[in-house]
C-alpha cells in the first residue's frame, strides 16, 4: 500500500500486466489510470479510434483492441516494453475485457480460440463477450468449420453472446453462412450436437448426464422397476437404479440420434428403389411432414428394412452395418453432416415449424397476407417450396440451445435457398429482438422473409421489437412494405425501411405476390419509424393509416421523398398534430423544402418537438434574408426545442454568425445541440461566430444550456491557425465535434463525378 503521491509517479512506469493489477489500489487512492491507458493507446495502436469522444473507459478500449490485434497477428507484443512481461499472457489476461470480437477472412481467430491451450481464454469470452462479428469471410475447409462450430456452441449456446453481425461478404459460402445463421438461432442437429457434447463440450455432457439421472429417478418413481431393459440386444430384468443404468439411458439416446441421422440423410436412387419395392401399402412421403408425426416415422420405417426392427434390434443392426456415428471417426461428426444439416434446414417446410393450430389454419392459405399469422411461405417468386427431400429433417428434431437476440446482415447477397433457411429460422426465433437486413439483394425474396416474420408473430412469447430493412432496389413500394410489417407486428418499437432506387420492373411483379396497400393495421406500439423513399412521391394519404395506428410514435424520419404538390407537407403536419401528439423527433433528409418556408417555421415553433433535423433540404436555396431572421426568432421563443440539425444547407459564414443570436440575452431557447456540418463554413466565419457567442454568454452571466456543436466537413483547413483559435475558444464554451476534412480533395472528388 503505497502513498498516493508515490503511486501516482509509479503507475506510468508499469507494464500492462502490472498496471492492470494496480487498478484496484489506484482506485482506492482516488487516482485515475485513464490518462495512462490513453497514452498506451496512442503509443501502441498509433491510430485514432472512431468515436473517441464517446469512449468512457480507455482501459477496456485498449485491452479489447489489444486482444483482437494479437489474435489476428497484427500486433507484436515485443514491440513495446510495457507489453513484454514474462507474467503476461496477452490473450488470457485481456480476454475478460472483451465484449465484442470480429472474426474475418479464413476464420483463423476461431481456430486459435478453440485450440487446447486457449481453453481458459474461451471460458473467459463465454462470460464477457456480447457481440460477435464476421467480416470479409472467405470459403473455409471442413476443419475450420469444426472449430467454428465449437466456438459458436461455446459462445452462443453456453455463453453470453447476444448479437451476431456479418459484414461484406460479396460471394458467401452457402454452407458456412447457413451454419452461422442456424447456430445463432440456437439450432443444431441432435446427431452433431451429441457428437460434440460427448467428446468436446463438458457443459453439454454434464447436462445430459443430469437429465439422464433425473429421467432414471422419475422412471423409478413411476414403478417401472419390473420393465424390460434394452441393452446390447439382450433382455434383462431391471434392477434398482444404479450409475451404470444412467449410461444405458445415454445409449438409448444415442440410438435415437442414430435413427434421426439415418432418416435425415439423403438416399441414393438404389435406396429409393428398394424403398418402393419394400413398401407396397404405405408410400414414402418426402414432400410434407408435421414435425415428429408418427405417420412419418412409420412411413420411413417401411422404407428401411433395418428400421422395421425393434429398437433393440435396431441398435445392433445399425451398429453392424456401420451406419451409426462411429467413435473411430474421432471427436467430430461425419464431414457430410454439416452439408446434410445446412441444406435440409434450407428445404424445411414452414408448416413443420408451426403449432398444430396455426399449421391447420395455414394449410389452404394462398398468400401470406391473406392467411392467418403463421402461415408458411408459399408460391412467391424466389420463395418456392421444393419437392424431393423437403421435409425429411424437421427443425423440431434439431437440438435447441440458447439463441442470440440481435441478428445483423450487411452487404451479404442472400439467395433463394438462403432466404428460405432464414425464413424457417425466423419463424420460431422467439428470442430475437433486433433484425437488420441491409443490402442483401432480396428482390422478390422479401416475401419469403415476410413469411417467416408472419409465422414468428404467432408466438405469444415473441420478443421482436426492431426491424431494419435496406437495399439498393425496392421490389415493392416503401409504404406497402411498412404496412405489411406493421400489420403482422403491431408490437414493434422501431421500423426502418430504406431503398436507394426504385425497381424498374416493379410494375411487372411475379404472379402471386400480394399487395399490402389494403392490409389493415392494428393499433401498434411503434415508437420510431424511418422511411427512405427511392425518389418516390410522398403521398400523405398512404402514410396517415400508419400514423393513426401508431399513437405512441416519438420519432419519424423521412428521407429522399419527393413532394408531388405544394400542399403535401402541410397535410403531413396536420396528420402528425392530430395522430401523434407525443412526437419528439422529426427528421427530413434530402428533400427539397426550398418552397415550404411556412411549414418549416410551423415545425420550429411546435411546442412538443424536442429535436428537428433538416438535412440537405436546400432551405436557403430561394429564400430571402428575412427567412433566416424568422427562423432565429422562432427558435428563440421555443423553450421545448433541444436539438436543431441543419447539415448540408449551405449556411456559409454569414448565416452561421447570425445563428449565434439564438443564444442572445432576450432568448428563452433551451437549445443544447446545434449541427452545422457540411455548410461551407470557413475559419474566419467560425471565429466570428465564436466571438459573438461569447458576448451573448457574458451578457447572460454565463447561464447557457448550449453544450454540443457539430462541425463535420466544413472548410476549416483553408486557414489552420484561425481555425485552431476558433476551436480553442469554442471548446471553453461547449463540446465541439469536428474532423480533419480535406476540402480541396473533396471538391476534386465532386468535380470528378459530375
Automatic annotation (TrEMBL):
InterPro entries: Leu_rpt_41, LRR_dom_sf. Residues 211-248, 353-380 are annotated as: Disordered. The keyword Phosphoprotein applies. Residues 357-375 have a biased composition (Polar residues). Residues 1-22 form the signal peptide. GO terms for cellular component: cytoplasm; nucleus. Keywords: Leucine-rich repeat, Phosphoprotein, Repeat, Signal, Ubl conjugation pathway. It comes from the Eukaryota. This is Leucine-rich repeat-containing protein 41.
Amino acid at each position: 500500500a503505497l502513498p498516493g503521491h508515490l503511486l501516482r509517479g509509479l503507475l506510468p512506469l508499469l507494464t500492462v500486466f502490472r498496471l492492470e493489477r494496480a487498478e484496484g489500489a489506484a482506485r482506492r487512492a482516488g487516482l485515475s489510470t485513464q490518462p495512462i491507458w490513453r497514452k498506451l493507446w496512442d503509443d501502441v495502436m498509433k491510430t485514432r479510434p472512431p468515436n473517441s469522444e464517446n469512449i468512457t473507459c480507455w482501459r477496456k478500449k485498449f485491452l479489447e483492441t489489444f486482444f483482437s490485434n494479437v489474435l489476428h497477428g497484427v500486433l507484436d507484443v515485443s514491440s513495446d516494453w510495457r507489453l513484454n512481461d514474462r507474467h503476461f499472457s496477452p490473450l488470457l489476461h485481456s480476454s475478460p475485457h472483451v465484449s465484442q470480437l470480429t472474426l474475418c477472412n479464413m476464420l483463423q481467430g476461431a481456430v486459435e480460440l478453440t485450440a487446447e491451450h486457449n481453453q481458459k481464454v474461451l471460458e473467459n469470452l463465454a462470460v464477457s463477450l456480447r457481440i460477435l462479428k464476421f467480416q470479409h469471410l472467405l470459403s473455409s475447409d471442413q476443419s475450420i468449420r469444426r472449430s467454428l462450430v465449437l466456438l459458436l456452441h461455446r459462445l452462443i449456446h453456453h455463453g453470453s453472446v447476444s448479437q451476431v453481425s456479418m459484414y461484406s461478404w460479396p460471394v458467401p459460402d452457402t454452407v458456412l453462412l447457413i451454419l452461422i445463421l442456424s447456430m445463432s438461432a440456437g439450432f443444431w442437429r441432435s446427431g452433431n450436437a451429441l457428437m460434440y457434447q460427448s467428446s468436446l463440450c463438458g457443459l453439454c455432457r454434464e447436462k445430459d448426464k443430469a437429465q439422464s439421472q433425473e429421467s432414471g429417478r422419475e422412471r423409478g418413481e413411476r414403478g417401472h422397476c419390473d420393465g424390460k431393459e434394452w441393452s446390447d440386444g439382450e433382455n434383462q430384468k431391471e434392477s434398482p437404479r444404479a450409475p451404470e443404468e444412467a449410461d444405458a439411458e445415454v445409449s438409448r439416446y444415442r440410438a435415437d440420434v442414430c435413427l434421426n441421422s439415418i432418416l435425415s440423410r439423403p438416399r441414393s436412387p438404389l435406396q429409393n428403389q428398394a424403398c418402393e419395392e419394400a413398401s407396397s401399402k404405405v408410400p414414402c412421403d418426402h414432400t410434407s411432414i408435421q414435425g415428429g408425426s408418427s405417420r412419418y416415422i412409420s412411413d420411413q420405417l417401411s422404407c428401411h428394412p433395418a428400421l422395421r426392427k425393434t429398437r433393440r434390434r435396431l441398435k445392433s443392426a445399425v451398429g453392424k452395418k456401420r451406419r451409426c456415428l462411429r467413435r473411430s471417426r474421432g471427436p467430430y461428426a461425419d464431414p457430410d453432416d454439416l452439408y446434410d444439416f445446412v441444406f435440409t434446414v434450407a428445404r424445411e417446410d414452414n408448416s413443420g415449424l408451426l403449432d398444430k393450430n396455426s399449421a391447420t389454419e395455414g394449410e389452404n392459405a394462398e398468400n401470406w397476407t391473406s392467411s392467418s399469422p403463421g402461415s408458411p411461405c408459399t408460391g412467391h417468386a424466389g420463395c418456392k417450396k421444393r419437392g424431393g427431400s423437403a421435409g425429411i429433417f424437421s427443425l423440431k428434431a434439431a437440438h435447441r440451445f440458447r439463441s442470440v437476440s440481435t441478428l445483423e446482415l450487411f452487404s451479404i447477397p442472400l439467395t433463394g435457398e438462403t432466404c428460405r433457411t432464414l425464413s424457417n429460422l425466423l419463424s420460431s426465433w422467439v428470442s430475437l429482438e433486433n433484425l437488420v437486413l441491409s443490402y442483401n439483394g432480396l428482390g422478390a425474396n422479401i416475401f419469403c422473409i415476410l413469411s417467416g416474420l408472419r409465422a414468428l408473430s404467432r408466438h405469444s412469447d415473441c420478443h421482436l421489437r426492431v426491424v431494419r430493412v435496406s437495399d439498393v432496389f425496392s421490389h415493392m413500394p416503401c409504404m406497402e412494405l411498412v404496412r405489411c410489417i406493421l400489420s403482422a407486428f403491431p408490437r414493434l418499437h422501431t421500423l426502418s425501411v430504406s431503398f436507394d432506387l426504385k425497381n424498374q420492373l416493379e410494375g411487372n411483379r411475379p404472379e402471386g405476390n400480394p399487395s399490402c396497400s389494403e392490409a389493415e393495421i392494428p393499433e401498434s406500439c411503434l415508437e420510431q419509424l424511418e422511411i427512405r423513399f427511392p425518389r418516390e412521391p410522398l403521398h400523405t394519404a398512404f402514410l396517415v393509416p400508419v400514423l393513426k395506428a401508431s399513437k405512441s410514435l416519438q420519432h419519424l424520419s423521412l428521407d429522399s421523398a419527393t413532394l408531388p404538390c405544394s400542399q403535401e407537407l402541410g397535410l403531413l403536419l396536420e396528420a402528425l398534430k392530430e395522430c401523434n401528439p407525443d412526437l419528439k423527433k422529426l427528421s427530413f433528409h434530402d428533400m427539397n423544402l426550398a418552397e415550404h418556408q411556412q411549414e418549416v417555421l410551423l415545425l420550429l415553433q411546435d411546442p412538443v418537438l424536442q429535436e428537428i433535423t433538416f438535412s440537405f433540404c436546400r432551405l436557403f436555396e430561394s429564400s430571402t434574408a428575412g427567412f433566416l431572421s424568422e427562423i432565429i426568432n422562432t427558435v428563440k421563443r421555443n423553450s421545448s426545442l433541444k436539438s436543431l440539425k441543419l447539415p448540408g444547407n449551405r449556411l456559409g459564414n454569414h448565416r452561421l454568425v447570425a445563428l449565434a443570436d439564438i443564444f442572445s440575452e432576450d432568448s428563452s431557447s433551451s437549445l443544447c445541440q446545434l449541427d452545422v456540418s457540411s455548410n461551407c463554413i470557413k475559419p474566419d466565419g467560425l471565429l466570428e461566430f465564436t466571438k459573438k457567442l461569447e458576448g451573448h454568454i457574458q451578457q447572460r452571466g454565463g447561464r447557457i444550456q448550449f453544450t454540443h456543436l457539430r462541425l463535420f466537413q466544413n472548410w476549416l483547413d483553408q486557414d489552420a491557425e484561425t481555425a485552431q483559435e476558433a476551436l480553442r475558444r469554442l471548446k471553453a464554451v461547449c463540446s465541439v465535434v469536428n474532423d480533419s476534412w480535406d476540402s480541396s480533395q473533396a471538391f476534386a472528388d465532386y468535380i470528378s463525378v459530375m
